[in-house]
Design brief:
The structure is a single chain. The chain is mainly α. Helix 3 runs antiparallel to helix 4. It is globular, with a radius of gyration of 16 Å. The chain starts with 9 loop residues before the first helix and ends with a helix. The mean pLDDT is about 90.
């Protein structure tokens, strides 16, 4: 299982782009009609709490549950991360820029550079 590759990101990329558009469209909407609007209406702190909750659920799934539940929990986490970013006004392009800047850099080296700042 650990030897399997993640596979192509193209389907995920398209899905995340569509999800981001949906989140943008629901921002400012009626919180009684949209869970996304409800979360955004509660602000970044509530979004952060949901991200922590979903990350914990994903960690548990990774440790002890089947692949389908792992994928489901990962989807929940990604959704809540996108909502949190929207709540803070952080564009996905800014996140992509940070990831691009780390491409080809050892994770150990990148982490060490952050801790020295």
């Amino acid at each position: 299982m650990a030897d399997e590759k993640l596979g192509s990101a193209s389907a995920l990329q398209a899905t995340l782009a569509a999800l981001a558009e949906t989140i943008d469209a629901r921002a400012g909407g009626d919180p009684s009609q949209s869970y996304t609007a409800k979360l955004l209406n509660k602000g970044p702190r509530k979004c952060a709490q949901k991200i922590v909750e979903e990350a914990g659920e994903l960690a548990i799934a990774l440790a002890a549950e089947g692949e389908d539940n792992v994928a489901s929990e990962a989807a929940d986490l990604l959704y809540h991360v996108l909502v949190g970013l929207r709540a803070r006004g952080v564009a996905l392009d800014a996140v992509a820029e940070k990831l691009d800047g780390r491409a080809g850099v050892s994770g150990l080296s990148e982490k060490a550079s952050r801790s020295s700042k």
